[in-house]
User: Fold these one by one.
Assistant:
Number 1:
Amino acid sequence: MLAVMNIAACTKIVALFLLCDCVASAQLSSVVPKHWKSQFPVSLGSSGFESDRKLQEAVRYEILDTNTVRLIAHSVHLSEHEKTLFMIAPGDIGDEVWFYTLGDEWSEGCGRFAEQLGAYVLARMDGHSGACLLSGITNRPSIASIPDPDLRILATNYPTLPVSLFQKSESGTKTNKAGQVAGHSMTATMANGKMQLHTNYTNIPQVDEICRWVSYTLVDGEIGWRYVISLKADGTLDRIDASKSDAKEFDPKFEAVMNEVDAEVTAEMKQNGTFGQFGSGHTFWQLKKEKLKSRGVSWHSPSELNQGRIYD
């Protein structure tokens, strides 16, 4: 639930900035429009990493590109009139991109456009290619037409990803024991200038609960995403956990060498007593990276691809 809520919350925040963007779908400008009612910046995030700055530049170029905006506008059925309500253009300073409203009017179509463009920006900054996302946007089946109920959940929560690329990989069940905490959330409050975190226990079952889970993978370029859908005992969505791996992990051509190296590293670490210790995951990945490199295989670890996530 938390992962889904984070995605939804971020999308709504960006969407708020993008309301003016609906306009952009019909109108793009290389300069600030002369007459505008209000303006909202679209943030591509900030980072000191050179690779992130290059990605930000690429995404900035894309959302100022007529084809990108036109395809997104078409996907949400923006009317010709709605296309005149807003404009997307660079800001006065640096590499800023702003959304300008050209009047007081806005519509549901503009809201749909804002959400779709917001989802596009977030997915691009997460590492998805523009080609993949535009394919997902322009070749999107209706949710009702998707026969797999689990796939419908993914299609609903990731509206820019191509449904055809999701591949079901694993499934199973877990048991929430009676009387034990099965779900919680965190809230933050400010007191005397300090932030305080509070844990809210949202699910302590009275009887044992059998809950189903299922995972899907999606490969886009050099990155493979794994989505684990956790369902509640009543079959409704609990949460979606997404993580990134090197795409070679899902490529049959590399299966043999991956298995060979994994077994080799495991044996070495067990022999020297480091396997299963705190921080051993990083040791495992470093050794795996070195051994794959010696075999001519370039590989990125989960810690490299999932910046900000803590691993033991």
Number 2:
Amino acid sequence: MRTLEGVLLDVDGTLVDSNDAHARAWVEALAEAGLDVPFERVRRLIGKGGDKLLPEVSGLDAESPQGKEISRRRGEIFVGRYLPSLRAFPGAMQLLARMRADGLRLAVASSAKKDELSGLLHVCGASEVIETQTSSDDADNSKPDPDVVHATLGRLGVPAERVLLLGDTPYDVEAGKRAGVAVVALRCGGWTDADLAGAVAVYEDPSDLLVHYEESPFARRE
């Protein structure tokens, strides 16, 4: 890798312990619409955009009136019922501070909706250190398509080979690879090393990465 200049950050499941909450919000919104979908089925798809998740679990077109209403209700449930109690993973804030102290430029590349992302960034302290952010609303196609990554690179103004993406799902790994960005993955989002195959390194959570920071891809320079 050429000299590292920046880091693209996923938030849900990477910096904030929110993947289960997202899955529960989907299950509850679907149930209100008369659709009984098991938590486990939804949970494995968290990290994809809702426009992809909803058709997979329900067969509904995300752009149909019913699909839009379920998505709207899911967001309402997540923000009202779950977001206030969410917490950052141990070491998340300290990891971001370390990256900034190293002179790395930080940007968020998230599958979250824009109206949810600000609250999530506040939870983990990222709003204080990032330069720019991109949500699923800023891309034509959500993860695992690479559109969100491309959009974030454009806003940051750094070439793909000079950044790393920090994520927690197979969809982050795929999106990064398709955009030409190497991915470092964390297991705290609920996936195994086999699920995260293709990442250049895998750590348990932000605190584990911080402990091993000097040997990690983030500390490598030419």
Number 3:
Amino acid sequence: MIPKSFDYLRPSTLQEAVQMLDRYEESKVLAGGQSLIALMKLRLAAPKYIVDITRIPGLSYVKEERGKLVIGALTTHDTVENSPLIRQKCPILSEAASRIGDQQIRNRGTIAGTLCHADPSADVPTAFLALDGEVVALSPSGERVIKASEFFVDFFTTALNPNEVVREVRVPVFSPRTGSAYIKHARREGDFAIAAVAAIVTLDAKGVCKSASIALGSAGPTPLRAVEVEKALVGKKLTDDVIVAASELADRGISPPSDIHGSAEYRAEMAKVFTKRALRLAVSRIGG
């Protein structure tokens, strides 16, 4: 199919992009375009204006500031996957990025783009929620910081206002004795997840779980935190029996969809199975 006609706008600065979004109703930001262009071709999206931010300089970077990794909005999935800083300081984000589509998609897609698309079966949003990350959004009235727990609102819906654009993404640097894992169940490598789990655990010097953060993909209209699993882990030594028992709680409070790839009941069961696998892998990755 051919997209409906639209007006193409190419700002040279982020401030100019915000002004365009504020002025023109029914406008959409074009970053990597890996989701938006496909939706437009299917006529599932028909914006009147496309605001192309891809040529705005200075929006692709990875750096460390005050205990956080700061990632520019136009940083590609390939860069996130292969950044030595991310691999060292926040490996789960690199791991999630590596599971996106194929190499061509990772070369074009951007971290802000996948977060703003807000597909609950996408890889980076699930890891981003487990990380308690945040986005920095720019609007005509200035900047604001939106936490991951407040960013995803519904299917393909975020807390961003129509005249806001993401400037950068921030995630915390891992503390010592932290292990993580992102794994997903999909029909083929690179497909969207039938079930996905991002797990982060930190142990104290005695091997007791100080903190646990578990996020589930394809478990509802947004990525979801497995709060009951987290509660069952904190304060305990993470023996296999503890991990197995906690993982059985992964279906609490979720509402997975049913489609041709799997029923809601199947996805709920897979949430438990893959939570167990992710926790085992995360614990095995904790260094001394």
